[in-house]
Structures are given as structure tokens and as C-alpha cells.
Amino acid sequence: MSQLIEILVLAFVAAIIIFKLISVLGERTGFEHSQRRRDTFRDPQKPEENHNSPSPSSEEDLIGPGLRKVYAQMLSLDQQFSLSRFLAGATRAFEMIVLAYAKGDLKSLKPLVSSEIYKDFQEAIEERLQKGESLETTIEKIETPEITDMRLQETQAIITVRFTSEQIHLIRNDKGKMIEGNPKQSEQIIDLWTFSRDLRAKEFNWTLIKTDQ
């Protein structure tokens, strides 16, 4: 009897573990490589299953009147495109790219940025390594992002987002000694990042193509 109870307990624990794995692996951030149609900044929930999908009018509130014609043109090419989901994904991408750059994680950066941006990041990271320096970045706060520009070049959507964040940057030498920055003092940083994707392409990935401050 005790052996049966033990088997049942183990089976219950295994079921919980499997459920948690499915929950984690099933959450699509949009950055994973897949052959299925996906949008890098799309909500993990399928549009047809999302009963609270934002209406076009509420979506238009996220942009200025001068950008709404372009937004309508983008919707005509991709009816599933959502500004709110785009901004949510762009914010996640911003955090991922900033932290990956600080860690020198080129593997994580490559699928998220254009070849030109990747080359700039790679050169900066290699220069840092040659100096024997390391960069530590902490993002303490990211304010609500703002779309400042939207363009459509044939089927290519190009969207610029302003990110205002509070960050702490520390630089250490090869001995681990801090040579720049203050761990107790953050600075406000304003970035203008431009993302692009082909609204008609099979691979619905947004790519960072330009950065400005």
C-alpha cells in the first residue's frame, strides 16, 4: 500500500514538473527561431483567441494624428499588426539587447539586430575585451515607450521608438576594480531605436536597424 502511495506521489510531482516546463517553453517571446508564422513583437496569445484585442481606435491613441494614415496602410498589409503588442515587444527587445551588449553576448544579439548594428556592437565589445574591461549594466526603470515615427517603404514597415530609461553602468578593469560609474547612482538615458520588418514576409521578425541618443 505504501509503495502504491509513493508511486502516486512521484507521478503527481512529475506531472507538475512537466506542466511547468510546458508553461515556460510555451511562452513565445517572438525571438525564438521557428518555421511557423510569427511576429517578434506579437502577444504570445493567438489573435483569434484574444477576446480583449485592442480596437483600431484605441490603438491609434498610441500615435500622433500624423502617423495614423501610415498605420492604416500597415494594417492593410497585415491585419494582425498591433501597436500595443509591438511596443510591449519592443520594450522587451530593448532590455534584452542592452543587457546582452553589456555581457558581450553576441549570440543573443545577432538575431535581434541588423548586420550593420551587429558589426558596431561586435567592434565595441572586442575593443572592451582588448582593454581587459567589463561592463555591468542594470536597468532600473523603463518608462512607457513612445512611437515617434512610422514609415512604409513598399511592404517594409519602419518604426522609431523613444525609450526613456534609468540605468546604472559600471566599468571594471581586468582585476575587477571599478574604474567608472557609481553603483548607487543611475542616469536617465533617452534612446531612439528604429525597428523594421517586411509585412509580407513569411518570417515576421522585427529587427533593430538604427540607434540614436
Could you characterize what this model shows?
By secondary structure, the chain is α+β, with helices and mostly antiparallel strands. It has one domain: Roll (Nuclear Transport Factor 2, Chain: A), CATH 3.10.450. The chain has helices at residues 2-25, 56-60, 68-77, 83-103, 106-109, 115-130; strands spanning 38-39, 134-142, 146-153, 156-172, 178-180, 187-198, 203-204, 207-212. The strands form 2 sheets. Strands 2, 3, 4, 5, 6 and 8 form a 6-stranded antiparallel β-sheet that branches. Strands 1-7 form a two-stranded parallel ribbon. A hairpin with a 2-residue loop joins β3 (146-153) and β4. The chain is elongated.
In short:
With 213 residues, the chain is of the alpha+beta class. 38% of the residues lie in helices and 28% in strands. The strands form 2 sheets. Strands 2, 3, 4, 5, 6 and 8 form a 6-stranded antiparallel β-sheet that branches. Strands 1-7 form a two-stranded parallel ribbon.
List keywords for this structure.
single chain; 213 residues; alpha+beta; Nuclear Transport Factor 2, Chain: A; 6-stranded antiparallel sheet; two-stranded parallel ribbon; 6 helices; 8 strands
